[in-house]
Every structure is written in C-alpha cells, then in structure tokens.
C-alpha cells in the first residue's frame, strides 16, 4: 500500500501600508516649540524711529492658514525655520523654503500659505517706525523682491529658540533682547553697498581713525582686527587708508604708539620696557628700533634731552 506525503506550501504576502501623516508631514519632523502658535505683544513702546509691536511663532502643521489677499498697517518680516510655502505679492508669486526670509510692508497686497506636503513653520516680527521703509530697502526688500536667503540660519534659530523657550517658562525676557534678535535677522539678509564706493567716504576714514585711537594701546590690536571690526577686507582697508591719508595703516598705528611712548618718557619715570608695553608694543626690541628710527635718538637719550630742556627752561625763569 503506498503513502502520499503532502508538503505544506506557505505564501508570504507583503502589504505596504502608507505611513501615518499629520497634515501630510513625516512623523520624524520635530517642532521649534511644542505649541503650534505663540505670540508676544510689546506694550508701551513709544520709539518713533523703530519699534517692535509683536513677535510670534507659527507651525502650520496645526495652525490653519489664510489664503486670501489682504493688506496690513505694519511691516512684518518672517524667518522660515523649516518647511515650504507660497508667497503672493500683488501679481507675483514666490516659492519660499527653509531658511529664507520674506518681508511685507504696509502698502502691498499679499497672501501666503504653507505647502500641502511640507508646511512651513516660522518666526515673525511686526514693526513700525519712520525708519522701517529705510531698513527694508537697505536689506533689498520690495514688492518686486520680498524674499532673501538668511546668511546666519543656525545662529538665528538658536537665538530665537532661547528667547521663546524663556517666554514659555514664564521667565522675563527684556524687549531689547528681542530687538537684538530682530536686528540679527535683518543683518543676515542686508545688502551692503559696494565697498569701492562706500568706503572712500571721508566720514568713514574718520571712523577708522577714531576706532584706532580707542584701541591702539592694546598689544592685541592689529590691522586684521581693525578690518574685521570695520566689516571690510584687509587689503581694501589698507588701500583706501593709504589713498586718503598718505601713510599705511601700520605706519599710522606705530606713529600713535611712538608719540605716546615719547610722552611717557618725558612725563613719567617708567622704564623703557614698561613704556613699550603701555604704548601697545608687544616686542621690546622692535619698540627700541622704531623709536630710534623715528626720533633719531635712543629712549634713554630722549629722556635725558627732555630733562635737560626742562632744566634750562627752569633756569631761564
């Protein structure tokens, strides 16, 4: 009698279920703040030139957008933390993405709304004042060009997160800290004038000289540091200063330090080494050589001459 062996057959069926979505957004996306919306209003501000009216945060995964065209009485600047959206200004349309900034003034008609698949979240500032149009213009914003890339997205995001987190914890946040964040935002999109035009201005050379006078006694002060503080390249700084003053920046700084050293040699009893340090010279030997080259005598001879001149003056009286 024969036997039949029946082999079991298994079927594996793979079913690809779509991931869960909230407003069609991947679940791994995190929020800037736990709440979808937060607003801080500044009361009692009376500055005429520029004042913040309010600042806020919106996450359009939970906030309902407005699609209709409208106008407003204030200026508003937005920094997009994440996501995408559409901006309509008058008859033009702009696609806005993460780490971009857009500004709306009090004259244009506009609408803006989040992308359906990747809705944006942003921080905004409402502001007023006589200087509002000028600030917007200096940053390159207009009805034809309301959009710009943020040059400092990580720094700005960290600063804003710190401010809003403190507000959520009901801690005091001074108005001027938000004003500082506002200026950081505006500076991140500002468009400087061409430096070959702007930095030849006489008043700017005076500003450079004033900055040097305030800092030249520090041994750490350098032309490189001066250029960074003036927001200008090292080579361009040297070029325009020499063109305006007829001497190099280095020679100008050394001249100030030597005049200070000569004054201290004449009026005090400090040693030459101490005076070198007090006059901004980091290297003592360089100071001695520069002094002799400038005045034709050593520091000791210069001091003796000053004393002799003072004694002669006293005898003549």
Give a structural overview.
The radius of gyration is 32 Å and the shape is elongated. The protein is of the alpha+beta class and about 325 residues long. The model is unreliable at about 5-25 and about 195-200 (pLDDT under 50). The strands form 2 sheets. Strands 1-2-8-3-6-9 form a 6-stranded antiparallel beta sheet, with helices on one face. It folds into 2 domains: about 35-185, Regulatory protein AraC (Jelly Rolls, Sandwich); about 200-315, Homeodomain-like (Arc Repressor Mutant, subunit A), CATH 1.10.10. A hairpin with a 2-residue loop joins strand 4 and strand 5. It has helices at about 130-140, 155-170, 175-185, 195-200, 200-215, 225-230, 235-245, 250-265, 270-280, 285-295, 300-315; strands at about 35-40, 50-60, 75-80, 85-90, 90-95, 100-105, 110-115, 120-130, 145-150.
Brief rundown of the structure:
This protein is α+β, with helices and mostly antiparallel strands and 317 residues long. The chain has helices at residues 132-138, 153-168, 175-187, 195-198, 202-215, 223-229, 234-245, 249-267, 272-278, 284-295, 299-316, and strands spanning 37-41, 51-59, 75-82, 85-89, 92-96, 100-104, 110-114, 121-128, 147-149. Strand 4 (85-89) and strand 5 form a beta hairpin.
CATH-level-2 architecture of the largest domain: Sandwich
CATH class of the largest domain: Mainly Beta
| Average residue-wise pLDDT | 85
The helix content, as a percent range, equals: 40-55%
Total strands: 9
Stretches where pLDDT falls below 50 for ≥5 residues?
Answer: 3-27, 193-200
Full CATH superfamily name of the largest domain: Regulatory protein AraC
- Integer count of domains: 2
Q: In the CATH scheme, what's the topology name of the largest domain? A: Jelly Rolls
Task: Spell out the helices and strands N to C.
Answer: EEEEEEEEHEHHHHHHHHHH
Estimate the global geometry from the Cα principal axes. Answer: elongated
Beta-strand residue percentage: 15-25%
Cross-sheet strand order for the largest sheet: 1-2-8-3-6-9
The main β sheet shows up as: 6 strands, antiparallel
User: Radius of gyration over alpha carbons?
Assistant: 32 Å
Backbone structural class: alpha+beta
Distance between the termini: 150 Å
In DSSP terms (H or I, runs of 4 or more residues), the helix count works out at 11
């Amino acid at each position: 009698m024969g036997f039949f062996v029946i082999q079991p057959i298994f079927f594996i069926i793979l079913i690809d279920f779509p991931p869960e979505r909230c407003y069609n957004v991947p679940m791994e996306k995190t929020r800037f703040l736990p709440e979808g919306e937060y607003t801080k209003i500044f009361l009692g501000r009376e500055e005429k030139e520029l004042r913040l009216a309010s600042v806020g945060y919106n996450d359009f995964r939970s906030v309902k957008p407005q699609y209709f065209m409208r106008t407003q009485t204030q200026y508003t600047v937005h920094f997009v933390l994440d996501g995408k959206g559409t901006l309509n200004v008058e008859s033009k349309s702009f696609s806005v993405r993460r780490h971009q900034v857009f500004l709306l003034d009090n004259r244009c008609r506009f609408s803006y709304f989040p992308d359906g698949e990747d809705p944006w979240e942003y921080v905004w500032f409402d502001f007023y004042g006589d200087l509002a149009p000028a600030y917007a213009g200096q940053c390159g914003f207009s009805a034809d060009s309301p959009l710009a890339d943020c040059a400092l997205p990580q720094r700005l995001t960290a600063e804003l997160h710190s401010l809003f987190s403190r507000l959520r914890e009901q801690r005091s946040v001074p108005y001027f800290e938000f004003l500082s964040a506002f200026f950081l935002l505006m500076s991140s999109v500002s468009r400087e004038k061409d430096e070959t035009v702007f930095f030849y201005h006489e008043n700017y050379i005076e500003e450079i000289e004033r900055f040097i006078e305030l800092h030249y006694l520090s041994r750490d002060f350098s032309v490189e540091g001066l250029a960074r503080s003036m927001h200008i390249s090292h080579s361009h700084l040297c070029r325009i200063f020499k063109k305006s003053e007829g001497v190099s920046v280095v020679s100008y700084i050394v001249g100030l330090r030597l005049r200070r050293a000569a004054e201290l040699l004449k009026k005090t009893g400090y040693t030459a080494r101490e005076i070198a340090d007090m006059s901004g010279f980091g290297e003592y030997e360089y100071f001695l050589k520069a002094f002799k080259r400038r005045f034709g005598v050593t520091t000791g001879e210069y001091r003796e001459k000053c004393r002799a001149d003072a004694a002669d003056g006293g005898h003549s009286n």
